[in-house]
Q: What sequence folds into this?
């Protein structure tokens, strides 16, 4: 049931461009999370999508009503606009985990006992 982009652009026409300088200070396209088409659609229609999701605007057509139902029922996104908005929400609302290759980790407890045994045998041979 994926509609073509032109039909979705018409159904979600917005009066303003959408920017999220807090989460994407250099824009959606430069963030590395969105394709060029996704960033264009999000910039062109995100203002309306955000308004619909915050219930500032009432849906005026079936596509917008379907979008509002998606947010209320947590069903899987069907069309391109819904998928992009869900991706945006996932990137802006989830907690970010950072994995590093170097960290300050305590050595296992058996390492300390092995080290002390070696130290004890060295002390015994010297005395």
A:
């Amino acid at each position: 049931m994926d509609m073509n982009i032109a039909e979705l652009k018409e159904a979600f026409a917005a009066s303003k461009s959408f920017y999220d300088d807090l989460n994407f200070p250099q824009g959606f396209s430069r963030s590395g999370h969105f394709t060029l088409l996704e960033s264009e659609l999000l910039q062109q229609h995100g203002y309306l999508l955000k308004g619909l999701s915050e219930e500032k605007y009432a849906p005026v057509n079936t596509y917008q009503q379907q979008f509002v139902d998606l947010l209320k029922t947590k069903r899987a996104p069907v069309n391109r606009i819904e998928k992009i908005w869900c991706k945006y929400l996932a990137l802006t609302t989830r907690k970010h985990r950072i994995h590093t290759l170097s960290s300050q980790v305590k050595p296992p407890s058996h390492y300390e006992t092995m080290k002390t045994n070696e130290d004890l045998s060295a002390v015994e041979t010297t005395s």
